[in-house]
Amino acid sequence: IYLVGFYEEREFALYVSSISNELRIPVRYLREDKPHGSAGALYNFRDLIMEDNPSHIFLLNCDVCCSFPLPEMLDAHRNYGGMGTILVIKVSAESASQFGELVADPDTNELLHYTEKPETFVSDLINCGVYVFTPDIFNAIQGVSSQRKDRENLRRVSSFEALQSATRNLTTDFVRLDQDILSPLAGKKQLYTYETMDFWEQIKTPGMSLKCSGLYLAQFRLTSPNLLASGDGTKNATIIGDVYVHPSAKIHPTAKENAVVTNAIVGWKSSIGRWSRVQAEGDFNAKLGITILGEAVGVEDEVVVTNSIVLPNKTLNVSVHQEIIL
Length: 326
Known about the structure:
Domain Mannose-1-phosphate guanyltransferase C-terminal: 256-324
Domain Nucleotidyl transferase: 21-157
CATH topology of the largest domain: Spore Coat Polysaccharide Biosynthesis Protein SpsA, Chain A
Radius of gyration: 24 Å
Oligomer: single chain
Low-confidence stretches: none
Helix content: 25-40%
Mean pLDDT: 90
Number of domains: 2
CATH architecture of the largest domain: Alpha-Beta Complex
Family: Belongs to the transferase hexapeptide repeat family.
InterPro entries: GMPPB_C, Mannose-1P_guanyltransferase, NTP_transferase_dom, Nucleotide-diphossugar_trans, Trimer_LpxA-like_sf
Shape: elongated
Distance between the termini: 37 Å
CATH superfamily of the largest domain: Spore Coat Polysaccharide Biosynthesis Protein SpsA, Chain A
């Protein structure tokens, strides 16, 4: 498993080590030296990815929340016989334009048309940001780079190409998966779709992480109920709904009297006083739709924190509403 990003390696060192031990398979973080695009990044690390000569490659966007039906996708992909298969889902016509819309053959599931965030409605079928490819994807990416190099070598360009400044100014090794790979290959029996009937969300705001946690907890109820806290009734502990308690966490009877936390994220080493409330309206798409306390934040007795973000190492002794506390 490879994680690709721009952050320093040290930011992921502890996580990568922990998840490798938990999954018992190698996990490695790869840092890009410069932007290569969603497809170009894959090509940039092709030698590492192909080191063990895999027959198929899964590509997952980091901001996706879903059940990730990878085994089912792979089976469908093998039956299709194409270069790639895209996980798709049907959404309302009103929200479809926020994503990559596509048209698929209802009988063969072949991708016939793809457009990224169109201004006019195209389809209620959208790209979920989960893919499975054969290694031929690298040839397709290389082909885009080669075309760009050829255009750079031409002394004269057509008037149409001259108008395509956004594409013309891209470097040869910057390749976008959606515009440069999916759109041109649509309708050429190279790409197919697999529709999921499960939940799917895109994590674009801090609030969505809370909503997605709820979706995963509900999924655990069906697939991994052993992960959920059951509550054995000792010390008057009561578990309501789907709850996960990390093995390192303790629900202690010294929790402050009548303190309330709802629609909020509480950082490490933070404390919440008696009769205090850390709360929000729960508008998961809004910037201040939830309340977030950074690491080591102290909320003193009888303080109400609503729809606010508090950076680490702050102590609040007065109530705040819709504020960002630096």
